[in-house]
Write a structure and sequence with these properties.
Elements: E1 29-31, H1 38-49, E2 54-58, E3 67-73, E4 76-82, E5 88-92, E6 107-109, E7 114-116, E8 123-125, E9 130-132, E10 153-159, E11 162-166, H2 176-180, E12 194-204, H3 208-215, H4 225-230, E13 242-244, E14 250-256, E15 279-285, E16 289-294, E17 297-307, E18 310-320, H5 325-339, H6 345-360, E19 367-369, H7 382-395, H8 405-413
Antiparallel strand pairs: 1-19, 2-11, 3-4, 3-6, 4-5, 5-10, 7-8, 8-9, 10-11, 12-18, 13-14, 14-15, 15-16, 16-17, 17-18
The protein binds FE2/S2 (inorganic) cluster and fe (ii) ion.
């Protein structure tokens, strides 16, 4: 039998009041049901993932006309494709005839700019127009013809090589530029001309927001041996500030890290444009994109939430186009050994958040704190509070008490 929420256990007086809201402002703690409640998860899908711009891939993954990539957003199967004219397009990966999945490989190349449904062989151009329905005479009586049929399209736009889609317009649709605001400004030079050299995908047993959170608070850097060695050992490191942008995005100010303490040779030769050999910049794009630019390699992490307790994490390693073979080999080694998903920090983060979720489920720990105030420096929880302010605005829920949704939703919407 499931435990009641909140649990009715008497206080001892000396313990942390774990079954009551903490004695801090409501902006400074969370109702942990935001991570576990299926109704909250459904609301996030409808109001955040369908109605906001969602990162799906990098332009370099669609290098030539006809190249496509399948992606699922909020349980909607989509594909993105470069059409015959070289334009990026996005469509539902669903045949308009009887709903079969059109493309079944994760990525590929359309042959002759045609895409043919395996079921009854309706075929479509790379711009989504139906071009042939087999045995068309059977449709004459109902005046159905290929020229009147097309795939359901989805908005698509890109900035600095990052490709985003938006499934629905929602109440206040924004252009991609309005959505991003200044979030990518600090990265404009380093990420302007990159290509993906590594793609990694892993399923995490935790709520998607726990992974986002670990990327927008510096307090947990104590977890990482790497950070204790190269960053926290530097006197000025913790003074590094978070810049909070409108829309729930954040940038962690550029900092110099003692990468020299690791076996990372020759960073001078391959330093990313606009960066120095020891530089690190982090940008979090609401709701689920985390970009780490480190000296010679960029890593972009993004999420596909599957259920309250299941999340797919996608990691991409990126490097400048036009690398020499030796430069690329060196970057790949640095990515593999230290900065990429098989380096040290990512497995530690995943391990940490996978221990959090069961601890929060079914009222075991009803509330958690996001209460640190450190003048927006590394260990401030202000990026978490900024994330949840945006989350509340979009979902109409209150992160400190999901039962307050009714009235609070109306207040937030004003
Ligand atoms: S379902 Fe695709 S052609 Fe019939
Ligand atoms: Fe971390």
């Amino acid at each position: 039998m499931e435990e009641a929420f909140p649990p009715t256990v008497p206080d001892t007086g000396s313990e942390w009041p774990w079954n009551r809201p903490p004695p801090v402002p409501s902006t400074h703690y969370l109702d942990n049901r935001i991570y576990t409640d299926p109704a909250v998860f459904a609301r996030e899908r409808e109001h955040i993932f369908k109605q906001q711009w969602k990162f799906v891939c990098h332009e370099s993954e669609l290098p030539q006309p006809g190249a496509y990539r399948c992606v699922d957003v909020a349980d909607v199967p989509l594909f993105v494709v470069r059409d015959e004219a070289g334009e990026l397009r996005a469509f539902f990966n669903i045949c308009p005839h009887r709903g079969a999945r059109l493309l079944r490989e994760v990525r590929g190349q359309l042959q002759g700019h045609r895409l043919t449904c395996f079921y009854h062989h309706w075929s479509f151009s790379s711009s989504g127009q139906a071009v042939a329905l087999p045995l068309p005479q059977g449709y004459q009586a109902q005046a159905i013809a290929a020229k009147d049929i097309g795939l359901r399209s989805v908005r698509i736009a890109s900035r600095l090589g990052l490709v985003f889609v938006r499934i629905e317009d929602g109440a206040r649709p924004t252009s991609l530029d309005e959505f991003l605001g200044p979030a990518l400004d600090q990265l404009a030079e380093p990420i302007a001309d990159l290509e993906v050299f590594h793609y990694h995908r892993v399923e995490i047993k935790a709520n998607w927001k726990l992974f986002v959170e670990t990327n927008c608070e510096g307090y947990h850097e104590l977890l990482h041996l790497l950070n204790r060695t190269t960053a926290l050992s530097q006197r000025e490191y913790l003074k590094r500030k978070w810049l909070l942008h409108p829309g729930g995005h954040h940038t962690f100010q550029p900092a110099n890290i003692a990468y020299g303490k690791l076996n990372l040779q020759d960073r001078n030769d391959g330093t990313l444009p606009g960066m120095s050999p020891n530089m690190h910049i982090v940008t979090d794009v609401f709701p689920d994109v985390m970009i780490n630019a480190r000296s010679t390699v960029v890593r972009i992490d993004s999420l596909i939430p599957l259920a309250p307790d299941r999340t797919v994490l996608e990691c991409r390693g990126l490097a400048p186009r036009g690398d020499s073979e030796a430069q690329r080999r060196l970057r790949i080694r640095q990515h593999n050994e230290v900065w990429g998903p098989m380096g040290r920090n990512l497995p530690e983060d995943i391990w940490a958040i996978e221990t959090q979720w069961p601890g929060m489920a079914r009222g075991k720990l009803p509330f958690s704190l996001i209460a640190r105030e450190d003048d927006d420096q590394a260990t401030d929880d202000s990026p978490l509070r900024s994330f949840y302010a945006r989350w509340e605005k979009l979902t109409g829920l209150r992160a400190f008490d999901i039962d307050a949704a009714g009235l609070a939703a109306q207040e937030v919407a004003k």
